[in-house]
Amino acid sequence: MRPDNGSGFVLEGRGLSVRYGAVSALDGVGIRVRKGELVAILGANGAGKTTLLRAISGLAKPFAGSVWQDGRDITAMPAEKRVRHGIAHVPEGRGMFHDLTVRENLLVGAYVRGDRRQIAQDCGAVLQTFPSLARRERQDSSTLSGGEQQMLAIGRALMARPQVLLADEVSLGLAPVITKQVFAELVKLRERGITLVVVEQNANLVLRIADYVYVLQHGRVVLEGAPADIAAAGGLAQAYLGA
Questions:
Q1: pLDDT at position 73 over 70
Q2: Who has the most CB within 10 Å: 144, 161, 187, 213?
Q3: Rounded (10°) CA dihedral 132, 134, 136, 140
Q4: How many other β-carbons are positioned within 10 Å of the β-carbon of residue 56?
Q5: What pLDDT, on a 0 to 100 scale, did the predictor assign at position 239?
Q6: CA distances from 174 to 119, 145, 147, 148, 203 (A)
Q7: pTM to 2 decimals?
Q8: CB of 33 within 8 A of CB of 2?
C-alpha cells in the first residue's frame, strides 16, 4: 500500500470488492491519490479498471471496502452527490447526447450547479481550452470527430468544477496523433490543480505523464509505484497478457 508522506490523500479506495452476479470484478483493491496528481490505472481488458472508476464515482456498489475523499468516508453517498462533492467521471464510450449541440452537452455537465453567470463563464473557458469545440459549439455533437467527442466528454465533466476527474479509456478508437492531443490536455488540467485518475490501455503513453501507477490483474492490484519503476518491472507485460 502506498505510504502516507504526511500530505494526506484526496482520494482513497480501501479494500474495494465488487461483484456482477457471481463474477468478481474487484477483489480487495486499494488505491491512494494525492491532490494534483495524475494517477494511471493499467491492465488488460477485464482486469477491473472500469469497475474501479465506477466504484469511486458511485455507479457501482461495492459489497466490501470503502471510498474516501479528503479523509471522509463517502461509500454510502449516491453518485449525484459525489459530483456535487467534486468527483466527475468521463465514462468509456464518452456518453454524448448526440441530439444536443456541443454547447448544450457542456451545460448538461453543470446540472448540479445553480450559478448561471458562472456556468456561462465556465462554458466559455472550456471552449477556449478546446478551440475545435468552440468552432462547432452550435453543431450537434453527432457531427464531431472521435477526438472532438472525447474532448467534449472531458469538457462536460469540467463543467461540474471537479476536484477529481476520473477518465476511462480516453484514447479508445482515436488515431495516435489525436490521442497525443487529448493526453496533452489532461496534462494541462493537472497543471491547473485538478487531480486525475486515468484508466488507459496505452501503457507507453500514460507512463510518460503519470505521477503514480496501479496495475490491475483479475480484479486485484498486482503492481504499483512510480512510472519508471513500473516500466522496469517484469510483471507489466504479464499483467497485460492476463497470465
A1: yes
A2: 213
A3: 110
A4: 25
A5: 72
A6: 29, 9, 6, 10, 15
A7: 0.90
A8: no
For residue 243, what pLDDT is reported? 46
Q: Which grid coordinates are listed for 154?
A: 472531458
pLDDT tens digit string along 60-69?
999 999 999 9
- List, for residues 94-133, the tens digit of each pLDDT value: 677 778 999 999 999 898 887 888 999 999 999 988 888 9
- Residue 194, pLDDT above cutoff 50: yes
Do the strands 164-168 and 38-42 form a parallel or antiparallel pair, or are they unpaired? unpaired
Work out whether the CA dihedral 208, 211, 217, 219 comes out positive or negative: negative
Under 8 Å between Cβ of 50 and 90: no
- Strands (DSSP E) contained in 34-150 are 38-42, 64-69, 72-73, 87-90
Which cell numbers in the block locate residue 222?
498486482
Neighbours of 6 (CB within 10 A): 5
Cell numbers of 78, please? Answer: 449516491
Name the residue ranges covered by the structural domains of the chain: 11-95+160-241
How far, in Å, are 9, 177, 206, 243 from residue 182 at the CA level? 26, 9, 11, 31
Q: What is the DSSP letter of 142?
A: G
CATH code given to domain 11-95+160-241: 3.40.50.300
Burial of 80 from C-beta contacts in 10 A (0-12 / 13-18 / 19+):
exposed
Dihedral angle over CA of 185, 187, 190, 192, nearest 10: -60
